[in-house]
Every structure is written in structure tokens, then in C-alpha cells.
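Q: What does the assembled structure look like for these inputs?
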Amino acid sequence: MSAAVSEGRRPATPSTTEPAWVRRSLIALALVFLTLFLFVPLAAVFVEALKKGLQVYWAAITEPDAVSAIRLTMIAALVAVPLNLVFGIAAAWAIAKFDFRGKNVLLTLIDLPFSVSPVIAGLIYVLVFGLQGWFGEWLRDHDLKVIFALPGIVLATVFITFPFVARELIPLMQAQGTEQEEAARVLGAGGWQMFLRVTLPNVKWALLYGVILCNARAMGEFGAVSVVSGHIRGQTNTMPLHVEILYNEYQFAAAFAVASLLAGLALVTLLVKFLVERRIQRSTISV
Amino acid sequence: MLFSRTLLRRHSVLPGFDLALGFTLLYLSLIVLVPLAAAFLKTATMTWPAFWSAVSSPRVVASYRLTFGASFLAAAVNAVFGLLVCWVLVRYEFPGRRFVDALVDLPFALPTAVAGIALTALYSGNGWIGRWLPFKVSFTPVGVWVALTFIGLPFVVRTLQPVLEDLQKEIEEAAATLGATRWQTFTRVILPILTPALLTGFALAFARALGEYGSVIFIAGNLPMVSEITPLLIITKLEQYDYAGATAIAVVMLVASFAMLLAINGLQAWTRARQGR
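A:
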């Protein structure tokens, strides 16, 4: 491939790209890899879900256990996402707009849940709130349940989705600096006024994507929730756990039907990411 | 700009620092640090021989070998193909490029259980892909590798992408002018610049694969000593009410994760230093 470039009098390709056949083979190779590992698995979810027809699909996602799983998943996400949203904004404000010692340590600690196995995330809450755990006896005496109940599921979900909003906001807010907020303060804006009128509008798209991604991960979390849920059908089963049960009972069409709802959520998440990135690109170009 | 920065270091006109940092530290401690400390404290109550036998029984060691081995192979394959995919997405135009670019993040967004059942169905003996393969994938260690490769796919692509996009064409033109072939330019000029980011992506994919559970348990078959990953073993111990044993293994995995986190931080600093040059 190099001969044409170095020896040919008029190389067919400029010196900073490859000959057409190399380009085409590389593209083909990349697409084959992505097809095997990405596109086909995604397509399989929907094909398997609809294999037995729309009626089976509809029945699978409207039977009482599925509905209760969907409801539980939504409740867990509705609690976990706002908590991590507030945390993400607070952390991003402190880290991006101020200088203080130990900032890098704090950033690393915020990333910690990314590198902890979901199973371990579930386990540590069992150690704290489980019957043999720190608060186990106290909780039992007061008739409170955390593990094998909704609070445990919410806690595990919060842990797993902990860094997402903060991670989207911090780099953007760092890049934006503090001049606009300082100007707002000098012009007499109060703290909240400055935050709502200056900071928030500047980061709204990244914030939206952070929330959507956080939500997708919250609704899809499996390992951590699996440890703390207890798998009580109709009570503490979230959607991913319901998928597992159906699959293990060889109800493949039903398992994939519920899975397809989660896959749809993932696709919406990617679409939002695509749109948000375009927005951010456009706004940075126009500035 | 410079003025406001120096001003900031002494005191800032912006409000809310104490509140924001205070809340951040409190929330971080309650949700992450204190529960994680519980794992270490629980292990501290074990005697050393009990701990050692819990984390080094043959079945546990076999699970480490599979988890670390399959994670390493998956991350290695992702390093090679991630570089290829990233190169193609950044450097070439082809129909559907932006669509492909957007879908690369799918493993981030798709719930692991969904990925798990989809891959199992595809790579089983009568699945769309499995039927064409001369060897078994689903319910073998190869299946574990397939799932971990899927999970780690976006990491290398996404860490390399900004570096490759920022790469100045002038450097390649200079290399070509000085008589380098395209291959020489790639291996001696481009690849060394990409190396820190490539290693970072590899490490991220490896770290993620170590703890992965949801996508693996469906496809692995979960045979003790053969295709049982360490996170599954933790769950198995928990279901047998062996909390100490489960926690001991968890601590080993946590230490491995923290080591990876430190390595990744170092690699990222190296990447930034390279790019800043």
C-alpha cells in the first residue's frame, strides 16, 4: 500500500490517508465486528420479543407480575435519579467553580462506584442493613425492612448511578469558567437567581443527558438490585429481575418482550445523547 | 481570565461553596464510603487463616482465573477493534457513519441482563451466530469472553476518539515528506501518540469487565471450576448465608478494582500530559 504513495509520481491518495482499498477493507472489518457484537444482539432482542406475535408480546408486558415489576422499577428510578441529580449539581458546583485542596481525591471518590462490581454494591448494603448487619437488629425491632424491600433496591440503584450526573456536568462547568456567574453577582443577582438564570441554562443539555443516562442505568440495574431484592415475585422484582425469572422459566418470548422495553429505553437514551451533543457543539461554535 | 483565577484562589464572589461541598461529602460518605468500609470492617473480624481459606479455595481461584483471564482477553480484543472502529469513525466517510457512531455507546445504556439474554440466544447452538461456529460459545468460558467484549466495547473507542480527532495532520504530512511510508507513519508517529489513551481505554474496559455480572451469568453456564465468575461466587456464598466468605472475596475484588482505578488515573494524567505537549 505504501509503494503507490512513495514511488508513484502522482499518488492516487494524499500523504495523510490510505489507498481506497485499505480504507474500504478497514471500514468493512470494523462494521463486521460491530455487527457481530452490537447490531445483531440489539436486533435479536426485538425479533425474539415479537417471534410469537403481537398478542403474546402484549400479554407479556401487561400481566400483573410484569406491571408490578415495571411500577417498582419506575418508583426506584423516581427516587434514585432526583437524589443523584441534586448530588451531581452540588458536586459539580463545588468542584468546577472553586479551587480547594483534595479536589482530585474527591473526583476519584466520586468515580468509585464505576469501578465497584454491582454485586459488591449490593453486598455492602446487606452488610449494613441486613439482618446480621450493623443496623439489622435495630431495624427488625422497629419493624423496618431495607434489604429485600424497596429501600434496599433504591439504595443499590443510587449507588450504581451515583456518578452519572456529576460526571456529565463537571467537565462542562469547568470549561465554562466562572466569569458569567461573577458578572451576575456583580450586577446584583442573588445566589439562587444567579444559579437559575445563568448556571442552569448554560448546562441544561448536559444535565438532561446526565439525567437520562442515570435513569436508563437506574432502570436497567441488575446485579446490585439482584442481591438486595430477594426476588419476591410481584413485590420486589424489578424489570431486569423479571426478565431473568421469565428467561430461567424458558418463557423466552415473554422475557424478550420485557427486555425490549428496556432496550427501547436504551435507544431513546442514545438518541438524546446524539441530539444533546449536536446542541452542545452548535452552542460552542456560536460562542 | 488570569485575574479572576488568582482572585478565586484567595476568595470567591460566588456563593454556595460550603453548602455544595458539605452536601457532596455527606452524601458521598453515606452512600459510598461508609457502606464500602463495612466490607473491610466485616473482613477485619475474620481470623487470617479463615480469610485465607475463603479467598484461596480451588473453586475461588478458578473463578479468579476465569474472571481476570476473560476480562483481559476481552479488553485486549476491544483495544484492537476499538482502535479500528475509532479510526474508521474519525478518519473515513461512509454511509451511516453517524448512526454507527451513536450506537457505539449501546453497551453503556443497554441493561446488562438484556445484553445477557440476547447474546446467549445468538451464540447458542441454534442461534443466529452460534449455528455457524464450529465450537460452542454459550455456556462455556468463550461465552464469558463474548459478554465481556460486548460490555467493554465503548471504552476504547470513546477514550481514543478525542485524541485522534485532535491529532494534527501536519505531523503526518511531515512524516510523509521525510519519506516515511504510510505504515511507518502509523506505527512510529500516530500510534505512539495514541498509546496513553489506548491503554486508558484498555484499563477501563478491563476494570468494567472484572465486576460484570448481569450479562455474563446468562451466557456462562456457571459451572463451578469451569465457567463460574467471581461475582457469581459472591452471590452463591451470600445465598448460603456465608456472609464472611462472600465479603472476603468481595474485598479481594475491591482491592483489584482500586488498583485499576489508580492505574487509570495515572494513565489519564499521562494522556493529558501527552496532549498538552
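Residues 1-10 of chain A have pLDDT under 50 and may be disordered.
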